[in-house]
Amino acid sequence: MPARPTRLAILGAVAALAIPGAIAIWRATASAWHPGAAWARELGVAPAGWTLAIGLAATVLGALAVLAADRWPRAGTLVAAVVTTAAWMLVFVPLPPATLPLAVVVVLAARAGRAGWAAAGIALFLGAGVTAVAVLEGTRGMLVATVMTSIALAAVLVVAVARRARREQARRAREQAEELARTRHAREREDMARELHDVLAHSLSSISVQAGVALHLADREPARATEALATIRDTSRQALDDVRHMLGVLRGEAEGPLVPEASLDALPALVEGAAGMGIHPALVDRLHPRPSTAIQSAIVRIVREALTNAARHAPGAHVAIDVERQPEGVTVRVVDDGAGARTPAQPTAPAGAGTGIVGMRERVALLGGTLEAGPTERGFAIVATFPEAS
After folding, report:
1. pTM for the complete prediction?
2. Which of 34, 138, 252, 365 could form a disulfide with 142 if both were Cys (CB 3.0 to 4.6 A apart)?
3. Which SUPFAM superfamilies match (predicted)?
4. Is residue 236 part of a domain?
5. pLDDT tens-digit series, residues 137-193
6. How does pLDDT run across 45-73, given as a tens digit for each residue?
């Protein structure tokens, strides 16, 4: 409900004030017969004065009804129907100009979602017009004109309702498109965060562990310290390459996924690299034939995240990695025999710890699978299951 009249209401009010008003003044100076003039003579009133007074009053009220229809569609519709009938029957303003206020109000009411009141206004005009023709002994032509005008107003109402329905449909479609865009944007942000975590978490954890090893062995075993520094160099270089690839994809300078799809053939190298992080991983891969590329990539990233968590929370633990096909689908199981959770003796995990499992669960859910993660009697277990299309 607008606080001020709309542009259509203002233009309609100006037209309703100018056109019927000019015709009413002309009728006051004309000598043509009309029912209002005859009724004025019977009442002993000068026809010219009667026509002018009724015509101007109806014109002003019609304009006010148009201005009020935006805020009060029910009252505006009823007033417009009454003054239209008065201008038609008592002043004999021709119907197209006489019904101008009611036609504008019908459109405004339909736009405001008050089509029922617009229809009621048309019915009131029809009923009042037929009654006035009977009471004032109007001609048959006046009756036909009243009925035809009512049909025309009904057609205006139908068109206005149809246009409002199209506008509402377009608005809903626009809102749905905007909501889909917001959802897509949020999903893209989640995907970027997940991919960035996958790229950096494992690399930074490995770098942190190897840096600690290098510091610890720098004086006593410089050769092993040098190996640790070489591992840091290679790991950081790979991480930088992955980040550059992600930025290239985001900028449109490179094609493909944010992070290249991984194959299960990469698991042995991943496990071998994790051994330098202070844990003892063992891989059992019985998954043949290979599943889809999406499932393989998800398994590699889950194993990488699980190894990173084990190195962070259970240093020195033995980690068993089993990849196989079960009746319920492809299963990857990563179980360590360490603490499974941080103990007071361990250092506090860095900010953001714990998001890895959430990311793993989201990644598995995207492929229709399930993930279970929790402590065991001695350590921690992660089990992910992916259904395969039959």
Report:
1. 0.49
2. 138
3. ATPase domain of HSP90 chaperone/DNA topoisomerase II/histidine kinase
4. no
5. 667 877 888 888 888 888 988 998 888 889 889 999 999 999 998 888 887 777 777
6. 445 566 667 767 777 787 888 877 777 77
